[in-house]
Design a protein that fits this description.
Elements (H helix, E strand, L loop, with lengths): L2 E6 L10 E2 L2 E2 L2 E6 L2 H4 L18 H6 L9 E2 L3 E5 L7 E7 L14 H17 L9 E5 L11 E5 L6 H6 L7 E3 H14 L1
Antiparallel strand pairs: 1-4, 2-3, 5-6, 6-7, 7-9, 8-9, 8-10
Helix pairs in contact: 3-5
Length: about 190
Amino acid sequence: MRRCRSTVSPCELDGLCDRLCGSYILLTVVRPTTMAAVEAPANVSKSSSEGYERKCIFCKIVNKEMGTELIHCDEDISCFQDIKPGAPHHYLVVPTKHVGNCKSLSKEHVPLVKRMVETGKEILQKKNITDLSDVRFGFHWPPFCSVTHLHLHVLAPASQMSLMSRLFYRLNSYWFITADQLIELLNSKEESS
């Protein structure tokens, strides 16, 4: 099979790029040039491809294509460790089916966000984290999210986050919104329209 090398921007990679101090670097990747190499994975049936984005790294993780250990997985919600933890316990809670980033949500997604938070709390309890006052639950606000699949960051204990992590997951910033703030924003969307 012939392959071509090309340099692509991070947004073309749907978040597969590495982060360096909060900024993105360009990566050189090998892209297949034949149609056979571009088709959806064989273990994803046509019926399950609804809610599956072929290029989304989190869809691949949830569908066990990446070898990442799932801490929690059910029909609606999945959870796994962040690849670059910002705290001793840093988990990503994601919808099992692909849902866009938090900016694309509507009021109908409030139950999903609440369920994601509850799952995050359950995971922390299983990991013996009982002080929920020292936990950060939140989302990066576009364009500051590296993966377009909705994902809740669960960080604990927040008091042990590094300086860079405190900046990256900073409360009341333009780039990070707490789960409670997102729920409030989504609830106000219908009222204002």
